[in-house]
Amino acid sequence: MHAPETPTPGGHARPPATALPLRLLLRFADAAFEQRFLRHYVAYYFRFAQASLVLGIVLIAGDYLVDCLAHRGDGANLLRLTLAVPVLLAGLAYSLQPRWRRHWQPVMAGFIVTAALCLFVILQRLDAEGGAGLTSWVGVLNFTFLQFYCFVVLGVQFRYALVSGLAILAAFEVALWGHEALTLREAAYWSYHVGTLFILASGIGWWREFVLRKEFMARAELDDSRAAAELRAQLLAHYDEITGLPNRRLFGELAATALERARRGARGCAVLHAEIDRFGSIDDVYGHGQGDAVLAIVAQRVRSMIRGGDLAALAPVADEDGVVARLGDNAFSVLVTDLDSQERAALVAQRLQAAIRQPVELAGRARPLLLTASFGIALCPGDAQDVAGLMRCAELAARAAKAAGGARHQFFDEALNARSRERALLETELRHAIEAGQLCLHYQPKVDARNGRIVGAEALVRWQHPERGLIPPGRFIALAEESGLIVPLTDWVLHAACASQRRWAEAGLRPLPLSVNLPAVSLVDSRLADQLDELMMVHGLEPSCLVLELTETMLMRDVNTAVEVLERLRARGYGLSLDDFGTGYSSLSYLNRLPMTEVKIDRAFVTDVARGGRDGALAAAIITLGSELGLQVVAEGVETEEQSAFLLGRGCVLQQGYLFSRPVPAAAFERLLARGTAREPEPEACA
Question: 352-366 pLDDT, tens per residue?
Answer without folding.
Answer: 998 999 998 877 777
